[in-house]
Backbone:
């Protein structure tokens, strides 16, 4: 058996290098990604997913799929939209999970199998309840933030007050 040898950067490192070499809003084509790893990226995206994980953790950037083209480096303000989309899909998956669990014919199961199903269904129900609670809290926090003055508005208000104090102190 031959010992493992490293032949240069891994596929993940090569993809990461390609992504880091692009600016926000640049689109990296499937062809460019495939060329850098030496195989069709559309058939095996594992190197891309690993590179994007590193890009997100270490470089505070991410990508978005551009259908039939490749991936685009997104702007910082777009991260919320992308994360919210993942969150919505996760909520739908929990709903589907719970439906599958509740639709099982308990009479066709052993007591142990039914108990496992019941426990998992309860766990999913609690997750859904926690998510609803947190979403209500987040909505309320977003409403409060929208009502909170910005720094520039506060600075303008401070300037007005300083001018008023100057006028009053000169009298």
Residues:
């Amino acid at each position: 058996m031959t010992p493992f040898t490293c032949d240069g950067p891994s596929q993940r490192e090569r993809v990461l290098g390609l992504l880091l070499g692009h600016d926000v809003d640049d689109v990296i084509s499937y062809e460019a990604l495939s060329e850098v790893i030496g195989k069709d990226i559309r058939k095996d995206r594992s190197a891309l997913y690993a590179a994007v994980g590193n890009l997100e953790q270490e470089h505070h950037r991410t990508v978005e799929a551009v259908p039939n083209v490749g991936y685009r480096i997104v702007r910082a303000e777009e991260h919320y939209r992308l994360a919210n989309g993942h969150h919505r899909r996760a909520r739908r998956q929990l709903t589907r999970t719970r439906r599958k669990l509740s639709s099982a014919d308990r009479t066709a199961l052993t007591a142990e199998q039914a108990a496992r199903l019941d426990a998992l269904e309860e766990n999913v129900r609690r997750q859904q309840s926690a998510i609803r609670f947190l979403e209500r809290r987040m909505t309320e926090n977003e409403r409060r933030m929208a009502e909170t003055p910005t720094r520039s508005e506060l600075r303008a208000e401070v300037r007005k007050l300083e001018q008023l104090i100057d006028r009053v102190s000169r009298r």
